[in-house]
Amino acid sequence: MEQIVQQALDENPQECCGLLSGIHSGESWLVQHCFPLRNVARSMFRYRADVQELLQVSREIRRSGEVELVVYHSHPGSLAVPSQTDLKENGWGTSAMHLIISLADDFPTCRGWWLLPDSYVEANWFVINNPSY
To answer: Which of 6, 14, 49, 68 is deepest in the core (most CB within 10 A)?
Structure first.
């Protein structure tokens, strides 16, 4: 989480983006790796990962035996709630949770979401420091 929040702060006022990979068993998911991506949209209102970079990261994730679990991006000036643009441009469906980091307040806020074609549902997630499994 520290790495993702720092990326959002470093790239502010533009949105940042990236992927989290890991393993899942049933409804339990464990993030193993973070892959920051370049926002080629260079915008404070939308993100678009470089296609070649995204393909390279996806190949690396697959080679490691992991899967893409989380797509993350920041909202530099708005709440950590999916925008209409986030819904419209969601290419992951419900195969990955979407984590949004808001920088709109004094302290960054992170919330997870399942994005549907025209709505969203908040995801249940939490951070485990030093998992023992």
So the answer is: 49
Distance CA 73, CA 99 (A): 7
pTM summary value: 0.94
Cα–Cα distance measured from residue 19 to residue 33, given in angstroms and rounded to the nearest whole number: 8
- Residue 49 to residue 14: CA distance in whole angstroms: 13
Strands, E, within 13-119: which ranges? 17-25, 28-37, 67-75, 97-102, 109-115
From CA 18, how far away is CA 7, in angstroms rounded? Answer: 9
The Cα 41–Cα 106 span in angstroms is 25
- Tens of pLDDT, residues 7-26: 999 999 999 999 999 998 88
